[in-house]
Amino acid sequence: MPADYLFIVRHGETQDNEKDIEAGPLPIPLARKGRKDARFISEALEDVEISGVYSSPILRAVQTARILARPHGLKVKTLEGLTEAKIKSKFVGKKGRHHILSSPEAYDETNSDLLRRTAEAVKTINAESKGNVIVVSHGDVITAILENVVERRVSSERYYVFHPEPASLSIVETKDRPFLHLYNYHRKLLAPYQSDSRAK
Q1: Is 14:36 a contact under the CB 8 Å cutoff?
Q2: Through-space distance between the first and last CA atoms of the chain, rounded to whole angstroms
Q3: Which has the minimum average pLDDT: 73-87, 135-149, 163-177?
Q4: 3-199 sits in which CATH class?
Q5: Rounded Cα distance, 148 and 43, in Å
Q6: Which one-letter DSSP state was computed for residue 85?
Q7: Distance CA 124, CA 77 (A)
Q8: Mean pLDDT over all residues of the chain?
Q9: Where are the chain's structural domains?
């Protein structure tokens, strides 16, 4: 029986995110803000019955996943198909962020490759799970997962219609046919509409 819902979360911020450095596969831990934002999502999900937690094997995603798994007493399962988009090594650790759609020349895989491997990752999760499952990954990877869900083919286009914020939550129903219930829910979602004091 496949999973019913995927609760898809982008990892929390790291100091590299804050400094606009391309972390790629480097084992960069969450910053204080990243841990705080991940706890916000964890608290939002603590009353949801979760049957499994899957994560990219990269440290910042695993640390986020552990924060989310803790209230449910679950261990995190890492899945290689959820790993960060495979950027060329010459860009790793350097200032300047890249995305697979807007700067494909910076990657060792294409967006089509990414779409295929994320679809396989979701297939694996469905085969191993049931009920509600938390999935923690990276911005471009989550975008690829959601592209398959919303059936918009952006592989030949060089712009983003959506891209998740750090420590954000998206929910995908998978039990009948894919359906996107929630996208990019995060701690400061309403901040642009609040007074400065409330948004902090």
Answers
A1: no
A2: 43
A3: 163-177
A4: alpha beta
A5: 28
A6: P
A7: 12
A8: 88
A9: 3-199
Cβ–Cβ < 8 Å for 115, 155: yes
Which residue intervals of the chain are DSSP H helices?
Answer: 15-19, 32-45, 59-69, 111-128, 139-150, 196-199
Q: Which two tokens stand for residue 161?
A: 């219609």
Instruction: Give per-residue pLDDT as tens, 109-156.
Output: 999 999 999 999 999 999 999 999 999 999 999 999 988 877 655 555
In angstroms, what CA-CA distances link 45 with 7, 48, 62, 139, 152?
9, 5, 17, 20, 28
Distances (CA, A) of 146 to 7, 12, 171: 12, 19, 10
Look up residue 109 and give its amino acid: E
- pLDDT surpasses 80 at 198: no
Average pLDDT estimate for 70-89 = 97
Q: How many CA atoms lie within 13 A of 124 on its CB side?
A: 16
Q: What percent of the chain has pLDDT over 70?
A: 88
Q: Taking Cα atoms as reference points, which of 127, 182, 189 lies closest to residue 150?
A: 182
User: Tokens in use for 27?
Assistant: 């084992």
Residue carrying the six token digits 């989310």: 68
